[in-house]
Amino acid sequence: MSAKISGLSQAEAEKLLTKNGLNEVPEPQFNFFKEFLSKLWNLSAWILEAALLLECILGKWIQSLFVLLMLLFAAWNGASKKKQSRRVLNNISHKLTPTVSVERDGKWQNIDSKYLVPGDLISVQAGDVLAADLRLVDGQISTDESSITGEAKTVRKNPQDPVYAGTTVTEGSGLALVTATGSNSRSGKTINLINNSAAPGHLQQLLTKIIYYLCVLDGVLTLVIIIASFFKGGDLKNLINMLPFLAMMFIASIPVAMPSTFALSNSFEATRLSKEGVLTSDLTGIQDAANLNLLLLDKTGTITENKTAVASWTNFSKLDNKQVLGLASAATDQRNQKIIDSAIDDYVKSQGLSVQSASDFTPFTSATGYSMATAAGHNIKLGSFKQLSLIDPSASAKVKEIDFGAGRSVALLIDDKLAGVFILQDQVRPDSKEALAELKKRGVLPIMLTGDNQKTAAAVAKEVDLRGQVISIHDFSDETDTSKLAGIADVLPEDKLRMVKFFQQQGYIVGMTGDGVNDSPALKQAEVGIAVSNAADVAKRSGKMVLLTDGLSSIVKILDAGHRVYQRMTTWSLTKLARTAQLTMILTFGYLFFDYIPMALNAMVIYTIMNNMVTMMIGTDRAQITYKPENWNMAKLAKIAFSLASGWTIIGIAAIAYLNTHGWSHGTISTMVYVFLVLSAMFIILITRTKRYFWQDYPSKAVALTQLGDIILTVILALCGIAMTQINWTNLGITFVVALLAAIVIDLFYQPIMKNR
C-alpha cells in the first residue's frame, strides 16, 4: 500500500506552512504577578506574615515596615528567579524539538517537527513522540495515549485510524498522513521535552532541615531569654517589649533566598552546559550529578563510534554473491536507518551494487529480533542469528567456522534458510579511554552494558582500559561483586531497568546512558538519565540530560556542573547556619551577661535583609571541582557551621564586654555590633566558599560587588545614624579591625576542617 502513497512537494509544504503557521502552540506567558502572589503563601511567608502582624499589634511601625519590605522582597525575588529559570529552560527546549522523517519531492528527509504541515507523509516507529495529529495509512502501531486520556494502557492502531499529537509509539511502524498541526491538533500543543520545574529535587529536604536546625537553636535561646528575664526581676510588660526581638530571631532563621539561590545556580549551569553540548531537560539532574558514583554505559554509540562497518561477510547460499547481497539490502530500513542498516548498505555499495527496494517491508523490532522484506520473489529476514536460527534449525551447523567474538553478527535468511552472516565491528572513539579514566579519577565506577557477546565486550573493555570482569547477564546475580565489574554482556534493553534498580538498592547513585524506546524506563529510574545524541524522542523525554555530541567527554562536563552547584549550596548552607547562629547567640548571651540586647531592632531587620541579598548571589559564585562523589550530610554541616559561629560569638561577646567596661554607651555598642555582624557575615562567605585561606581566593564579580554594596550601605547607615545610633570614624575603624583579625584567626583554625569537609 505504501507504494501508492506520496507526500507533498517542497513548494506545496512551504505554501501550507505560510497558511497554517508553524506546528507549535506558544506556551502561556509567564504571569509574574500570579507567581509573586504564590510566593506570599508558603511556610517562609507565613512566618514573616505572623511576625508582621505581631509588630503591628505591638505598635512597632518602623519595624513593621522593614518586615513588610522583607516579605515583598522574598516574593519578588522568588518570582524573578522563577522567571529567569523558565526563560533558560524555554530557550533550551527549542533545541530539543523532535525531528521527523518526512517525504518531500519523493525523497525521504529528516526535518524539524515544527515545520510539519497537513498532508505531509511521515514515517512513524516505536520510540517516536508524535508532534501532530495523524491518520495511519500503512502498517500497524501501538500508542500510549496517557498524555491525552489519562489511561496508561496502549491502544492498537490500524490503517485509517487517527493518531494524536503528544502520544508515544510503543510498538510497530508505519506511514501516516498529517491531519492537523499546532493549535488545531487534539492535544492543542506540540510535544515539549522540557520538564519545566525550576525547583530542584532536594531543595525541600534541605530547606526543611535548615529551618529545623535553626528553629531548634532559636527555640532554646528564646526559652533561655524568657527564663532569664524573670530571674533578673523582669515582669510581663518587659517580656512583651522583648517580643519583637524574639520574633526577629525567628525571622532571621528563614532561608528567604535559598529557593532563588538554588534555582539561580542550576539555571546558570544549565545555560553553561547547553553551550558545551549538553541540554538539560530536568534541573534536578545537575545537582544529582555531584552525588553520582556509578555510571552504566551503552557500548555502541557511547564508548564506540556511532558508525559500524562490515568487517567480514560469509555467503552460505547457493545464489550468486552479488544477488544475495542485493537481497540483503532490500531488508534494510530505508526510511529510518539505524547504524546496522547503514553499515550493510555501505558494504553493498562498496561491492559495486545498488540497494534494492522491497515490495513489502517490516522494520526490525526487539520483539522479533529481525527485519523482514519481500523482493524478487524471495522472503528475506535480516537480524539476530540467535532469533533466526530458531527459524532455520540447520543454521548452527553452518556457522562453526564463524568467529562470533570478532564483532556484532547479523544473519541473513532467504526463504527461511541461512544465506549468510555479516560480522560488524564498532570503532572505539578516540576520547573514550581518556574520558573513562577521568570518570574513574572522580570516583565514578563505569560499567559497560552491551548486547554483544562476552568475548566481544571483553575486547572492547580491554581497549578502553576498563579493568575488571566482563560477565554475561545470565551469570549476574545478587551475589555478584559489583565493585569488580567492567562490563555486562548479552544485555537486552529490558534488562537495563533491572540493572538500574539493582545498583540503586546497593546504595549507588546511578547514572545511565541510553538511546532506544526500551531504555526509557531505565533512564527515568536513574538519578542521572542521559539520552545520547541519536536517541529516540521518548528516550530524550525520559532522561534528565540530552547529549548533542557523541562520546563520553560531555558526561565529565555534567559532573563538573553538579559539583559546582553542590559547592555553592554547601557554601550557602554553612553561611546561613553560621550567620544565624552567631546572631542569635550574641543577642542571647549579650542579654544574659549585660542585661540588655546589644543590637537595635531596626538594625536587626536591616541586617537580615542585607544578608539575604548577598547570599542569593552565591548561586553565581566561582566554584571548585572536587574529585569524589558528594553527599548532603546536614548534621555534619550543622556541626561545622555552629563551630564557626561559636568562634565569632566568643570574639563578639569579648568585644562587647570590653566596650561595656570602658565607657561606650549602649547605643554606640549596638551600632558597632551591627557593623561587626555585617562584616563577619561577609567574611563567613569568603571563608566557607573555598578550601584555601580566604585571602588566597576571590569570589565571582557578582558576589564581590554585592558584598561591597552591603559594606558601603552599612558604613553610611552607621556614620549617619540612620535607623540606629550614630557612631564616629574611630568606632567604625575599631570594628573593622576587630572583624578582620577575627576572620584571620578563625580561618587559621577553620581551614584544616574545611579541607576534610
Automatic annotation (TrEMBL):
State the UniProt keywords alphabetically: ATP-binding, Membrane, Nucleotide-binding, Translocase, Transmembrane, Transmembrane helix
Q: What is its main location?
A: membrane
- What SUPFAM superfamilies does the database record attribute to this sequence? Calcium ATPase, transduction domain A (SSF81653), Calcium ATPase, transmembrane domain M (SSF81665), HAD-like (SSF56784)
Chain ranges of the Cation-transporting P-type ATPase N-terminal domain: 1-60
- PROSITE patterns the UniProt entry points to: ATPASE_E1_E2
Q: Which InterPro entries match?
A: ATPase_P-typ_cation-transptr_N, ATPase_P-typ_cyto_dom_N, ATPase_P-typ_P_site, ATPase_P-typ_TM_dom_sf, ATPase_P-typ_transduc_dom_A_sf, ATPase_P-type_domA, HAD-like_sf, HAD_sf
The UniProt transmembrane annotation reads 61-79, 210-231, 243-265, 640-659, 671-690, 702-724, 730-750
Q: How does it sit in the membrane?
A: Multi-pass membrane protein
Report the subcellular localization.
Answer: Membrane
Q: What is the protein name for this chain?
A: Proton-efflux P-type ATPase
- Organism encoding this protein: Lactobacillus xylocopicola
Taxonomic lineage of the native organism: Bacteria, Bacillati, Bacillota, Bacilli, Lactobacillales
